[in-house]
Amino acid sequence: MTSTRLFTCDDLFKFNRVNLDPLTETYNLQFYFKYMARWPDYFSVAESPSGRMMGYIMGKAEGLKTEWHGHVTAVTVAPEFRRLGLAARMMDGLEFISDKIYNGYFVDLFVRRSNDVAVGMYEKMGYVVYRTVLGYYSSGADEDGEDAFDMRKALSRDPDKKSMVPLGRDVHPHEL
pTM for the full model? Predict the structure, then answer.
């Protein structure tokens, strides 16, 4: 049976197998430490009975007024544990925290426009494309980056789902 627990510093030595995926962003250690310190309840691990890391999710609470929301910074599952519903289970946990603890209006995330599998999964979970962020994923100094979809799902504080109404125009990263 899979268990979920908070991410710890020791997990940084265990997550390479999960992180070594071309669609998973890898950050510097300070970035992970910042999330563990500031938003520990948003940073969790899915673990097998033997203690093997199966996947993790990290996020944060951000924004002001009706833009106050939970943000999914990363969610990833090791290849051998995909298609078992782990990502959806971890997303449910982040949505619960965003809704019931932080009282957010919505949850948002960025996903590569080309990642059809992830986009489809998020749509099945009730997320919609709010806007496209042009060149969000940089690919080098001389190349334009890949576009991202900014996807959103309304929480109970937004019963009319106003936060999910598509913006109607593309944006650039500096506009975020």
Answer: 0.93
